[in-house]
Write a structure and sequence with these properties.
Layout lengths: L1 H14 L3 E5 L8 H6 L4 E3 L4 H13 L3 E5 L4 E7 L3 E7 L28 H11 L3 E6 L5 E8 L5
Parallel strand pairs: 1-2, 1-3
Antiparallel strand pairs: 4-5, 5-7, 6-7
Length: 156
């Protein structure tokens, strides 16, 4: 289904100069057909979804037809032990090679072609500064599950 969407988007871009494609640093490789069909009308606006929405709104205001692509993670939270909460964010990507699992939190480690390798390192630092833990495990079906355990009550 995803491939069909990107093929259709590339066809729209080739047929209509007003069509633009935007992503928030997700699925970058999927946009290659669009870039070939509509040179100069693909934007990777980075990880901030607010920027993605703002740029898309600006393009629409200028009479363009923006398609903003993002992936909604599956987020769950539940009470953890008696004095904390656990938040799990699970994606639908390829997951992580078990040999690299410990490295994903190291500064400057990345598997992305244009990644900086700082996102998970910064996230872990923030969680630990609040007395919590950030861990990674394979997702239930596929992808990666990140688990944030945070203390509540007196431990917080």
């Amino acid at each position: 289904m995803r491939d069909a969407f990107f093929r259709a988007l590339a066809a729209l871009g080739a047929a209509d100069d007003r069509v633009w494609a935007l992503t928030g640093d997700l699925g970058v490789g999927l946009f290659e057909p669009f870039e070939a069909a509509a040179p100069g009308r693909y934007l990777n606006v980075g990880i901030a979804e607010q920027t993605l929405v703002g740029v898309a709104a600006g393009l629409a205001y200028a009479g363009k037809v923006p398609f903003a692509y993002s992936i909604a993670p599956f987020v769950t939270s539940r009470p953890h032990e008696t004095d904390g909460v656990m938040i799990t964010v699970e994606d639908s990507g390829e997951g992580i090679d078990p040999r690299n699992a410990k490295q994903i939190f190291e500064p400057f480690y990345t598997t992305k072609q244009q990644g900086m390798g700082l996102g998970l390192s910064i996230c872990r630092s923030i969680v630990e500064a609040h007395g919590g833990r950030l861990t990674a495990a394979p997702g239930a079906l596929h992808g990666l599950a990140l688990r944030i355990s945070l203390p509540t009550g007196e431990r917080a």
